[in-house]
Amino acid sequence: MVGKIEKNKKGFLQIPFSWIFAIIVGIFILFLAIYFAYKMISSGQQEIGAETARQIDVLLNPLETSFETSTPLILSSETRIYNKCENTGTFGEQIIQISQKSFNKWAEPSVDIGFENKYLFSDDVVEGEKFYLFSVPFEYPFKIANLIILTSKEYCFLDAPDEIENDIIQENVKFETNENNCEDESVKVCFSSGNNCDIEVNIGQGYVDTLKGTPNGVQEPAKQASKDGEKLYFTGNLIYGAIFSSKEIYECEVNRLMKRTGQLASLYWDKSSFVRQKSCNSNLDTDLLSLRNSVNEVKSSEDLSSANLIVEQINNKYDFEECVLW
Predict the structure, then answer these.
(1) CA–CA separation, 155 vs 158, rounded Å?
(2) pLDDT by residue for the chain (326 residues), tens digit each?
(3) Measured in Å, how far apart are the chain's first and last C-alpha atoms?
(4) What are the structural domain ranges in the chain?
Protein backbone atom coordinates (compact mmCIF):
# COMPACT_ATOMS: atom_id res chain seq x y z
CA MET A 1 0.00 0.00 0.00
CA VAL A 2 1.34 3.45 -0.95
CA GLY A 3 2.42 5.54 2.04
CA LYS A 4 3.17 2.59 4.26
CA ILE A 5 6.61 1.34 5.23
CA GLU A 6 7.21 -1.98 3.56
CA LYS A 7 9.77 -4.69 4.27
CA ASN A 8 11.52 -6.34 1.34
CA LYS A 9 12.54 -9.95 1.13
CA LYS A 10 15.99 -9.25 2.58
CA GLY A 11 14.50 -7.61 5.65
CA PHE A 12 15.40 -4.00 4.84
CA LEU A 13 12.86 -1.22 5.32
CA GLN A 14 11.69 0.55 2.21
CA ILE A 15 10.85 4.21 2.91
CA PRO A 16 8.70 5.88 0.26
CA PHE A 17 10.29 8.77 -1.64
CA SER A 18 7.62 11.15 -0.37
CA TRP A 19 8.78 10.53 3.20
CA ILE A 20 12.43 11.06 2.29
CA PHE A 21 11.50 14.30 0.53
CA ALA A 22 9.47 15.46 3.53
CA ILE A 23 12.39 14.73 5.89
CA ILE A 24 14.83 16.66 3.68
CA VAL A 25 12.45 19.61 3.41
CA GLY A 26 11.90 19.53 7.17
CA ILE A 27 15.62 19.60 7.87
CA PHE A 28 16.05 22.49 5.43
CA ILE A 29 13.22 24.45 7.05
CA LEU A 30 14.68 23.79 10.51
CA PHE A 31 18.09 24.99 9.31
CA LEU A 32 16.56 28.19 7.92
CA ALA A 33 14.64 28.75 11.14
CA ILE A 34 17.80 28.39 13.23
CA TYR A 35 19.78 30.59 10.83
CA PHE A 36 17.25 33.42 10.79
CA ALA A 37 16.75 33.17 14.55
CA TYR A 38 20.52 33.55 14.99
CA LYS A 39 20.59 36.51 12.61
CA MET A 40 17.71 38.15 14.46
CA ILE A 41 19.43 37.62 17.81
CA SER A 42 22.71 39.00 16.42
CA SER A 43 20.89 41.95 14.89
CA GLY A 44 19.07 42.56 18.15
CA GLN A 45 22.32 42.44 20.09
CA GLN A 46 23.88 44.96 17.72
CA GLU A 47 20.86 47.24 18.14
CA ILE A 48 21.18 46.92 21.92
CA GLY A 49 24.88 47.75 21.58
CA ALA A 50 24.12 50.81 19.45
CA GLU A 51 21.49 51.98 21.94
CA THR A 52 23.95 51.49 24.81
CA ALA A 53 26.53 53.52 22.88
CA ARG A 54 23.99 56.34 22.48
CA GLN A 55 23.23 56.20 26.21
CA ILE A 56 26.95 56.47 26.94
CA ASP A 57 27.08 59.45 24.58
CA VAL A 58 24.33 61.13 26.63
CA LEU A 59 26.19 60.27 29.84
CA LEU A 60 29.35 61.90 28.49
CA ASN A 61 27.60 65.24 27.84
CA PRO A 62 27.71 66.57 31.43
CA LEU A 63 31.33 65.46 31.68
CA GLU A 64 32.19 67.33 28.51
CA THR A 65 30.37 70.51 29.56
CA SER A 66 31.84 70.62 33.10
CA PHE A 67 28.51 70.18 34.87
CA GLU A 68 29.84 66.99 36.42
CA THR A 69 33.36 65.75 37.05
CA SER A 70 32.90 62.10 38.01
CA THR A 71 30.28 59.44 37.44
CA PRO A 72 30.09 55.61 37.49
CA LEU A 73 28.57 53.64 34.64
CA ILE A 74 26.96 50.30 35.57
CA LEU A 75 25.63 48.08 32.79
CA SER A 76 23.38 45.04 33.04
CA SER A 77 25.80 42.64 31.34
CA GLU A 78 29.50 42.30 30.66
CA THR A 79 30.38 44.88 28.05
CA ARG A 80 33.25 45.95 25.87
CA ILE A 81 33.57 49.62 24.94
CA TYR A 82 35.71 50.08 21.85
CA ASN A 83 37.36 53.50 21.77
CA LYS A 84 38.34 54.72 18.32
CA CYS A 85 39.89 58.04 17.40
CA GLU A 86 40.17 59.63 13.96
CA ASN A 87 42.30 62.74 13.52
CA THR A 88 41.25 63.58 9.96
CA GLY A 89 39.26 66.70 9.10
CA THR A 90 39.03 69.97 11.00
CA PHE A 91 38.56 68.54 14.49
CA GLY A 92 38.87 64.79 14.00
CA GLU A 93 36.25 62.46 15.42
CA GLN A 94 35.66 60.42 18.56
CA ILE A 95 34.04 57.03 17.85
CA ILE A 96 32.78 54.35 20.21
CA GLN A 97 31.37 50.88 19.62
CA ILE A 98 29.71 48.52 22.07
CA SER A 99 29.75 44.73 22.31
CA GLN A 100 27.90 42.85 25.04
CA LYS A 101 28.14 39.27 26.19
CA SER A 102 25.14 37.03 25.58
CA PHE A 103 24.91 33.24 26.03
CA ASN A 104 28.59 33.37 27.04
CA LYS A 105 29.59 34.81 23.64
CA TRP A 106 30.49 38.32 22.58
CA ALA A 107 28.13 39.95 20.10
CA GLU A 108 29.45 41.72 17.04
CA PRO A 109 30.37 45.35 17.84
CA SER A 110 27.60 47.87 17.26
CA VAL A 111 27.60 50.49 14.54
CA ASP A 112 29.95 53.43 15.03
CA ILE A 113 28.67 56.27 17.21
CA GLY A 114 30.78 59.35 16.52
CA PHE A 115 31.08 62.92 17.79
CA GLU A 116 33.51 65.78 17.15
CA ASN A 117 33.31 67.61 20.48
CA LYS A 118 34.39 64.85 22.88
CA TYR A 119 37.86 63.66 23.83
CA LEU A 120 37.78 60.21 25.44
CA PHE A 121 41.00 58.82 26.91
CA SER A 122 41.11 55.08 27.63
CA ASP A 123 42.52 51.79 26.47
CA ASP A 124 41.50 50.75 22.95
CA VAL A 125 39.02 48.31 24.53
CA VAL A 126 37.62 48.73 28.05
CA GLU A 127 35.84 45.68 29.45
CA GLY A 128 33.59 45.08 32.45
CA GLU A 129 30.15 45.67 33.92
CA LYS A 130 31.14 48.74 35.95
CA PHE A 131 33.02 51.61 34.38
CA TYR A 132 34.47 54.74 35.91
CA LEU A 133 34.47 58.12 34.21
CA PHE A 134 35.84 61.47 35.28
CA SER A 135 36.66 64.67 33.48
CA VAL A 136 39.23 67.42 33.88
CA PRO A 137 39.55 70.68 31.92
CA PHE A 138 42.41 71.22 29.51
CA GLU A 139 43.61 74.82 29.13
CA TYR A 140 46.30 75.68 26.60
CA PRO A 141 46.39 78.60 27.60
CA PHE A 142 42.63 79.17 27.17
CA LYS A 143 40.01 76.47 27.72
CA ILE A 144 40.24 73.91 24.91
CA ALA A 145 37.96 71.08 26.06
CA ASN A 146 37.27 68.69 28.89
CA LEU A 147 39.27 65.47 28.88
CA ILE A 148 37.06 62.47 29.68
CA ILE A 149 38.84 59.50 31.27
CA LEU A 150 37.26 56.03 31.03
CA THR A 151 38.54 53.04 33.04
CA SER A 152 37.34 49.71 34.43
CA LYS A 153 40.52 48.44 36.08
CA GLU A 154 41.82 48.96 39.61
CA TYR A 155 44.72 51.40 40.02
CA CYS A 156 47.15 52.03 42.85
CA PHE A 157 48.92 55.42 42.79
CA LEU A 158 52.16 55.48 44.77
CA ASP A 159 53.56 58.75 46.18
CA ALA A 160 51.23 60.86 44.08
CA PRO A 161 51.32 64.65 44.60
CA ASP A 162 48.43 66.19 46.53
CA GLU A 163 46.97 67.85 43.45
CA ILE A 164 46.69 64.48 41.72
CA GLU A 165 44.90 62.99 44.72
CA ASN A 166 42.54 65.97 44.80
CA ASP A 167 41.70 65.64 41.12
CA ILE A 168 40.91 61.91 41.11
CA ILE A 169 38.13 60.86 43.46
CA GLN A 170 37.39 57.40 42.13
CA GLU A 171 36.71 54.20 44.04
CA ASN A 172 38.90 52.24 41.59
CA VAL A 173 41.94 54.48 42.26
CA LYS A 174 43.73 54.05 45.58
CA PHE A 175 46.52 56.29 46.86
CA GLU A 176 49.32 54.67 48.83
CA THR A 177 52.90 55.33 49.90
CA ASN A 178 53.86 51.65 50.17
CA GLU A 179 53.45 49.28 47.22
CA ASN A 180 52.79 46.38 49.61
CA ASN A 181 49.43 48.01 50.36
CA CYS A 182 48.38 47.78 46.70
CA GLU A 183 46.12 44.96 45.55
CA ASP A 184 47.97 42.37 43.47
CA GLU A 185 45.71 42.78 40.43
CA SER A 186 45.83 46.57 40.45
CA VAL A 187 47.81 48.65 37.97
CA LYS A 188 50.58 50.32 39.97
CA VAL A 189 51.40 53.90 39.00
CA CYS A 190 54.62 55.38 40.43
CA PHE A 191 55.39 59.07 40.88
CA SER A 192 58.83 58.36 42.34
CA SER A 193 61.54 55.81 41.65
CA GLY A 194 62.30 52.78 43.77
CA ASN A 195 58.96 50.98 43.45
CA ASN A 196 58.05 47.99 41.32
CA CYS A 197 55.41 49.63 39.14
CA ASP A 198 53.59 49.13 35.85
CA ILE A 199 53.52 52.83 34.95
CA GLU A 200 56.03 55.52 35.81
CA VAL A 201 55.11 59.21 35.83
CA ASN A 202 57.93 61.74 35.56
CA ILE A 203 56.31 65.08 36.33
CA GLY A 204 59.56 67.03 36.12
CA GLN A 205 60.27 65.94 32.55
CA GLY A 206 56.61 65.69 31.59
CA TYR A 207 56.23 62.11 30.41
CA VAL A 208 54.51 58.83 31.28
CA ASP A 209 56.21 55.50 30.61
CA THR A 210 54.88 51.96 30.92
CA LEU A 211 57.67 49.85 32.38
CA LYS A 212 56.23 46.33 32.20
CA GLY A 213 53.84 46.38 29.27
CA THR A 214 50.86 44.33 30.44
CA PRO A 215 50.09 45.05 34.12
CA ASN A 216 49.75 42.08 36.48
CA GLY A 217 46.37 40.40 36.31
CA VAL A 218 45.23 42.34 33.25
CA GLN A 219 44.14 40.16 30.36
CA GLU A 220 43.29 40.85 26.76
CA PRO A 221 41.79 42.95 25.37
CA ALA A 222 42.16 45.59 28.07
CA LYS A 223 45.92 45.79 28.28
CA GLN A 224 48.30 48.70 27.79
CA ALA A 225 51.20 46.86 26.19
CA SER A 226 51.17 49.23 23.22
CA LYS A 227 52.68 51.90 25.52
CA ASP A 228 55.59 49.70 26.52
CA GLY A 229 58.99 51.20 25.84
CA GLU A 230 57.68 54.55 24.59
CA LYS A 231 57.16 57.79 26.47
CA LEU A 232 53.91 59.73 26.27
CA TYR A 233 54.59 63.41 26.80
CA PHE A 234 52.07 65.64 28.51
CA THR A 235 51.37 69.17 29.63
CA GLY A 236 48.86 70.17 32.29
CA ASN A 237 45.93 67.81 32.71
CA LEU A 238 47.01 65.71 29.76
CA ILE A 239 48.89 63.78 32.45
CA TYR A 240 45.65 61.87 33.14
CA GLY A 241 45.14 60.96 29.51
CA ALA A 242 48.72 59.69 29.35
CA ILE A 243 48.26 57.52 32.45
CA PHE A 244 44.94 55.91 31.54
CA SER A 245 45.18 55.66 27.73
CA SER A 246 46.75 53.36 25.23
CA LYS A 247 49.47 55.03 23.17
CA GLU A 248 47.38 55.08 19.98
CA ILE A 249 44.37 56.69 21.62
CA TYR A 250 46.46 59.22 23.52
CA GLU A 251 48.46 60.42 20.52
CA CYS A 252 45.33 60.70 18.38
CA GLU A 253 43.44 62.69 21.01
CA VAL A 254 46.41 65.02 21.52
CA ASN A 255 46.45 65.63 17.77
CA ARG A 256 42.71 66.42 17.83
CA LEU A 257 43.15 68.80 20.77
CA MET A 258 45.91 70.64 18.92
CA LYS A 259 43.63 71.02 15.89
CA ARG A 260 41.05 72.62 18.17
CA THR A 261 43.71 74.81 19.78
CA GLY A 262 44.76 76.11 16.37
CA GLN A 263 41.18 77.03 15.46
CA LEU A 264 40.61 78.79 18.80
CA ALA A 265 43.93 80.66 18.52
CA SER A 266 42.74 82.05 15.16
CA LEU A 267 39.43 83.13 16.70
CA TYR A 268 41.16 84.88 19.61
CA TRP A 269 43.57 86.56 17.19
CA ASP A 270 40.53 87.98 15.34
CA LYS A 271 39.03 89.08 18.65
CA SER A 272 42.33 90.70 19.68
CA SER A 273 42.37 92.70 16.44
CA PHE A 274 38.76 93.79 17.05
CA VAL A 275 39.17 94.90 20.68
CA ARG A 276 42.33 96.80 19.78
CA GLN A 277 40.07 99.18 17.86
CA LYS A 278 38.27 99.81 21.17
CA SER A 279 41.49 100.98 22.89
CA CYS A 280 42.22 97.53 24.32
CA ASN A 281 45.57 96.16 23.22
CA SER A 282 46.25 92.64 24.46
CA ASN A 283 49.75 92.54 22.95
CA LEU A 284 49.10 88.90 22.09
CA ASP A 285 48.57 89.08 18.33
CA THR A 286 51.98 87.69 17.44
CA ASP A 287 51.88 85.09 20.20
CA LEU A 288 48.47 83.78 19.13
CA LEU A 289 49.63 83.41 15.55
CA SER A 290 52.78 81.65 16.74
CA LEU A 291 50.67 79.30 18.86
CA ARG A 292 48.40 78.51 15.93
CA ASN A 293 51.34 77.73 13.68
CA SER A 294 53.11 75.71 16.37
CA VAL A 295 50.17 73.44 17.27
CA ASN A 296 49.51 72.82 13.58
CA GLU A 297 52.96 71.23 13.44
CA VAL A 298 52.29 68.84 16.35
CA LYS A 299 52.26 65.28 15.03
CA SER A 300 52.86 63.50 18.36
CA SER A 301 52.99 64.38 22.04
CA GLU A 302 56.77 64.70 21.78
CA ASP A 303 56.24 67.78 19.59
CA LEU A 304 54.41 69.69 22.36
CA SER A 305 57.59 71.28 23.74
CA SER A 306 57.66 74.21 21.27
CA ALA A 307 53.99 75.02 21.78
CA ASN A 308 54.42 74.75 25.56
CA LEU A 309 56.93 77.61 25.48
CA ILE A 310 54.49 79.83 23.59
CA VAL A 311 51.66 78.96 25.98
CA GLU A 312 53.86 79.87 28.95
CA GLN A 313 54.74 83.16 27.27
CA ILE A 314 51.07 83.98 26.69
CA ASN A 315 50.22 83.17 30.30
CA ASN A 316 52.95 85.53 31.50
CA LYS A 317 51.78 88.38 29.26
CA TYR A 318 48.02 88.00 29.41
CA ASP A 319 46.32 90.53 31.70
CA PHE A 320 42.69 89.62 32.41
CA GLU A 321 41.96 92.99 33.96
CA GLU A 322 43.27 95.13 31.11
CA CYS A 323 41.94 93.28 28.08
CA VAL A 324 39.75 90.18 28.35
CA LEU A 325 39.97 87.81 25.39
CA TRP A 326 38.85 84.53 27.03
Answers:
(1) 10
(2) 445 555 555 544 566 766 665 666 666 566 555 544 444 444 444 455 455 556 665 556 655 665 556 778 888 789 999 999 999 999 999 998 888 887 788 888 877 888 888 999 999 999 999 999 999 999 999 999 999 999 999 999 999 999 999 999 899 999 999 999 999 999 999 998 777 889 999 999 999 998 654 443 333 333 333 455 679 999 999 999 999 999 999 999 999 999 999 999 999 999 998 888 877 888 899 999 999 999 999 999 999 999 999 999 999 998 877 788 99
(3) 97
(4) 254-317
Alpha carbon of 45 to those of 5, 99, 203, 237: distances in Å? 46, 8, 44, 37
Assign 54 to helix, strand or coil. Answer: helix
Q: Check: CB of residue 287 under 8 Å from CB of residue 268.
A: no
Residues in the chain: 326
Mapped onto helix, strand or coil, the DSSP state of residue 9 is coil
Comparing CA positions, the residue from 216, 206, 243, 211 lying closest to residue 230 is 211
pTM of the model: 0.79
